[in-house]
Write a structure and sequence with these properties.
This protein has 146 residues and is an alpha+beta fold. It is built from 4 helices and 7 strands. The radius of gyration is 15 Å and the shape is globular.
Length: 146
């Protein structure tokens, strides 16, 4: 995609990641929370469109498994392939780091994300009823990387 650049996020990117998260979720994470995640084992990738930060994915690896902690794209930058590109970057890097299975939780009502994860090769492997504070169920998605 023209003008798209994806690089690994650093502690100095915490405020940008928080800005994107707050634009994408009702309960956005703060820059302090982002910095804490990045400083405590999480890895992120930041996507920029024409030089401006527009999306990120954050993951945590444990042995040969990993979990997507968050994926977000600014509303104005959606449906241009950033989400899929971020997932592709994360999957390639995690596979190279020895990850065999990648998991994530997503709200059952989040059709956009569920379509994206299906496009990215994930399958729904479990349902957690009333998982979120508003009683919405979570779908657990899994993708084998080997
Ligand atoms: C989910 C999200 C990250 C998708 O980002 P994006 O950059 O728009 O995704 P892409 O452009 O790469 O879309 C890839 C595919 O996902 C699916 N998709 C994405 N948005 C969709 C929507 N609103 N409705 C239906 N399908 C959608 C489509 O299959 C799309 O391919 P297409 O555009 O060729 O039809 C973005 O909508 C977002 O930030 N949402 C709010 C935060 C969120 O819900 N994160 C996930 C939490 S688990």
């Amino acid at each position: 995609m023209k003008g798209l650049a994806i690089r690994q996020a650093e502690a100095a990117d915490a405020a940008q990641l928080a800005m994107i998260h707050q634009a994408a979720f009702a309960k956005g994470w703060s820059a302090k929370e982002m910095a804490s995640l990045l400083g405590n084992g999480a890895t992120g990738w930041l996507a920029s469109q024409a030089g401006a930060p527009a999306g990120f994915v954050l993951v945590r690896q444990a042995a040969d498994e990993a979990e997507i902690l968050s994926l977000a794209v600014l509303p104005a930058a959606r449906r241009k392939g950033l989400g899929l590109a971020l997932m592709g970057t994360a999957c390639t890097a995690l596979k190279a780091a020895g990850v065999k299975q990648l998991f994530l939780d997503v709200r059952e009502s989040n059709a956009a994300a569920r379509h994206l994860y299906a496009r990215a090769g994930f399958v729904c492997c479990a349902r957690r009823p009333a998982y979120y504070a508003d009683n919405m169920a979570a779908c657990v998605y899994r993708r084998a990387l080997s």
